[in-house]
């Protein structure tokens, strides 16, 4: 399970204000919902985690939390993203590009351009 640095409590990781812990998920902001999902992932780690454009519409602090949690994630990740910097930060080792009705497999993101 991933540990969050510089957090005095689990609630401190999830939300900035205590009143959000009583809010329904539908009224949370995109960043708050992303943090809630991270908490669920941290609480029980599935063997495979599928993420589709997880860095869209989140604040920088939430992005850093996501990176921290995913780097410590013990299972396999399937990440769909156009954010090359994010993919490098979570240390993706293999990636696939769909182009011209073909799927190309690459190793070592640093040597290739998406």
Description:
33% of the residues lie in helices and 19% in strands. It is α+β, with helices and mostly antiparallel strands and 114 residues long. The protein has one domain: Rossmann fold. It has a two-stranded parallel sheet. It is elongated.
- Low-confidence segments: 1-11
CATH architecture, by name, is 3-Layer(aba) Sandwich
Biggest sheet, in brief? 2 strands, parallel
Radius of gyration: 16 Å
What order do the strands of the largest sheet run in, or round the barrel if closed?
1-2
Principal-axis shape:
elongated
Helix-strand makeup class: alpha+beta
Secondary structure layout plus pairing:
Elements: H1 10-14, H2 30-43, E1 48-52, H3 60-72, E2 76-80, H4 84-89, E3 94-99, E4 102-107
Helix pairs in contact: 2-3
List keywords for this structure.
about 110 residues; alpha+beta; Rossmann fold; disordered N terminus
